[in-house]
Structures are given as C-alpha cells and as structure tokens.
Amino acid sequence: MAPKTVRWGMMATGGIVQTFTKDILVDPETRGVDDIKHVVTAVASSSSKDSAEKFIKNCVEGKQGDTQCTAYGSYMELVQDSNVDIVYIGTPHSHHYQNCRLALEHDKPILCEKALTVNAEQAKILFDEAKKRNLFFMEAVWTRYFPLSIEVRRLIQDGKIGEVIRVQSDMSIGAIPEEAFDLSHRMVNKDLAGGALLDLGIYALTWQFQTLYHTLPKEKRKAPRVVGTVVTPEPRTGADEATSMLLEFPVSTPSGKRNAHGIATTAFRAHFDNEVDQVSATPAVRIFGEEGEIQVFGPIYRPSRYRITFRDPEERIQDFSFDFPGDIHGMAWEGDEAARCWMEGKLESESMGWEESLAIMQTMDEVRKQGGLTYPGNIESTEYPIDLAARG
Ligand SMILES: NC(=O)C1=CN([C@@H]2O[C@H](COP(=O)(O)OP(=O)(O)OC[C@H]3O[C@@H](n4cnc5c(N)ncnc54)[C@H](OP(=O)(O)O)[C@@H]3O)[C@@H](O)[C@H]2O)C=CC1
Ligand SMILES: O=C1OC[C@@H](O)[C@H](O)[C@H]1O
C-alpha cells in the first residue's frame, strides 16, 4: 500500500524546528517506515516572513519533490492554513501554552516541544481543550521513541533485571552558564522559562518515568512523591542552574506494596561524561534491579548505547549499540509516531500519553515549590490570549 502523506506546519524557525524538519524529510524507508510520508506545507516565523522564507530554502526545498511550502510572518496565518494537518511547535517553553491554545482554537492537532508548559495547570487546560475538540496532542519528548528506549522498557517489563529497586538519572552538560549563555538566552532567561529543570531535568525525569511508571500497567501507574529537592540559582538571572530530586515511586509487586527510589539530577555547570552527539564512557542512567543493572550511556536525550550486568557471575555482560538510519538526528521517530497517531484518529500517543505528561509537569511543579523556583506571572498564567514577547 502507498504511504499516506502527513502535511506539517512549523511554528517558529529556531534551532529545534530546523533539526526536526530535516529529520522528518529524510526518506522514512531508510528507517523501515513504509506507511507514512512527511511533507512540510507551511512555516511561520513570529519575527518576519523573511525568516520563514530562509528556513524553507535551507531546510525544505529540494527535499519533498513538488510539494509547495508557504512562508508566513505570523503564527496566526499558520494555524489558519487548511493545507496543514499537524502543527509542530518549537518556541521556548514560556510560549507553549499560548501557542498551543492558538493552534487548538483553530482545530489544529499538535506536536509541542518539551517542556510542554511552564506548569501543570496549563498542561491540564490544553489536554482538556484537545479532548473537547477531538484533536491529537502530544508532548515532543523524542527520547521516548528511540529504539533503545523502547527496548529498555521492554527488558524491564520482561523482568530481565528483576524488580527495579532504584533508578539514577543525570542530565548535566558541563557548561559554564556565564560563558555559554548570554542573559537573554532561553536557557537562563526566566522570561522564557529558562533553567536546567524544565530544559534538561525533564530528560532525567523522562528516564525515571519511562522505567518506574510507564512500564507498569496503566491502572497501576502512580506519580512519585517528591521527597527532596535542592536548587541552585544561576547567579545572574535566578533561573535554576542545578536541580537535584529525590523521588519515591509507589510500586505494587506480586510480593506486596513497596517503593522504588528515583534520584534525578540536572546541572549546567557539573561536568558529566555526556558529550553532545558522542557516546559517553560512563553511564548517565543506572537502573538497578534485584537481578541486574541496565546502564544507559549519555547523552540521555539521544541514547544509542546501553549495557546490562547481572548479579549471576555466570552471565555475560551484554552491550548494545544503535545507529541512526538515514543519518537522522533521532527526531524522525517521534515525527512518525505523531503522524501515525493522527492518521489513525488517536488523540494521544501511547508512549507519551496525557496522564504521564501531566504527572511529569506536576512533579516539576512540586520540585519547584520545594526549591522556591518561580517564574514571572505572565508565563505562569492560564489566561489566554496574553501577548508574550516575540524573539528579539
Ligand atoms: N527535543 C530536543 O532535543 C530539543 C528541544 N528543544 C525545545 O525546543 C524549544 C525551542 O528551543 P530552540 O529551538 O533551541 O530555541 P531557539 O531560540 O533556537 O528557537 C526558538 C524560536 O521560537 C520563536 N520565538 C517566538 N517567541 C520567541 C521569544 N520571545 N524568544 C525567543 N524565541 C521566540 C523564534 O522563532 P520565530 O522568530 O521564527 O518565530 C525562535 O527562533 C524549547 O522548548 C526547547 O526545550 C530545544 C533543543 C533541543
Ligand atoms: O532538549 C534539549 O536537548 C538537547 C539540549 O542540547 C537542549 O538544550 C535541550 O533543549
């Protein structure tokens, strides 16, 4: 059967939208996908139409045959375009709530970058709105769709390392914020919901949730208790530059009720052997089971190597590596998932469902509350529409 074509509309022209666009326009057959084809039919920039035109030249033209792509100088025009099936939102986290509301209001399905919103209350309103309007809506946590993540979840579900007792996950980047990010950069600018927790800590939490929450049957999944939080403010802006979280996941096992411990850490300044686009030598995620341990090597948002060690000394250590077919960066897998869900008429993705996105946002809310981490009122607000600053 011929693959079905999904028509994407890109909201924003920054770094991640460029990466996502290039990835989905790689021939899906190179990764064994023959039911879907992606095309980009519109790109919108809040700064200028010119920026959207440049984007199309660099990222779209020559990669999708005769399919035309329209440039817009506003997000409003994008969500009104009837040639767009799904909108991909790649603005800073501060803007996601407003941008998602705009797309939903115009009946557009959405794939929205992480962190989904600034707080859980905003996320809940978006899910309710998507449900009411019968629209597909998914948080773009690309890591979930990596073959490695899928395999690790399956290993846990199959009991390969026995019951999971504890998970440690770290997402640190070894960057001196004063050197790496100027004051307006989205990583440290509180007006853009900057800081380590929402930008990077979410990956440390992704590994907690996909191992200790998602591996359970739906009716047994329980959000963790946040037992402790430590936050270090970035000296110039007060955004968090390091956040450490201690979590307790309630787990019910055949032997009765017990808990599993989660230790999730994130920091700009702390160096971890976690080189971007290279595979690190020491594991950044350690999943400790009764019978063995699964170790995932960084960068944990783009994992390509894991190892299993066993309690039984007779068992060999097993080491596995994954490649990036068609030279994709790894975002095409989540693009395939979103497109497929939309085509099948689903409202949410099984691997990153609304309840789980919400539980993660609630966990981050509680971490922030305990750590005294706040954001400006306009980006925490659930009011809509509010005119937030455009780029520059
Ligand atoms: N999954 C992943 O691996 C990654 C995800 N991300 C996520 O993607 C989002 C964007 O990050 P990234 O692409 O790196 O950011 P960039 O700064 O590179 O791009 C953000 C874009 O958003 C638009 N925008 C609208 N309003 C503003 C504003 N007030 N300030 C700045 N930009 C604005 C701009 O596009 P325009 O002017 O065209 O409207 C801008 O180019 C974040 O939520 C981040 O967490 C980021 C990196 C990796
Ligand atoms: O999501 C992300 O993953 C990669 C990081 O480099 C980036 O800062 C972050 O937004």
UniProtKB/TrEMBL annotation:
Pfam families from the UniProt entry: GFO_IDH_MocA, GFO_IDH_MocA_C3
Xref: SUPFAM superfamilies: Glyceraldehyde-3-phosphate dehydrogenase-like, C-terminal domain (SSF55347), NAD(P)-binding Rossmann-fold domains (SSF51735)
EC number: 1.1.1.179
InterPro entries for this protein: Gfo/Idh/MocA-like_OxRdtase_N (IPR000683), Gfo/Idh/MocA_domain (IPR050984), GFO_IDH_MocA-like_dom (IPR055170), NAD(P)-bd_dom_sf (IPR036291)
Domain of life: Eukaryota
Stored Gene3D superfamilies: Dihydrodipicolinate Reductase, domain 2 (3.30.360.10), NAD(P)-binding Rossmann-like Domain (3.40.50.720)
PANTHER family: DIHYDRODIOL DEHYDROGENASE, PUTATIVE (AFU_ORTHOLOGUE AFUA_1G07520)-RELATED, OXIDOREDUCTASES
Protein name per the record: D-xylose 1-dehydrogenase (NADP(+), D-xylono-1,5-lactone-forming)
Organism: Lithohypha guttulata
Lineage of the species this protein comes from: Eukaryota, Fungi, Dikarya, Ascomycota, Pezizomycotina
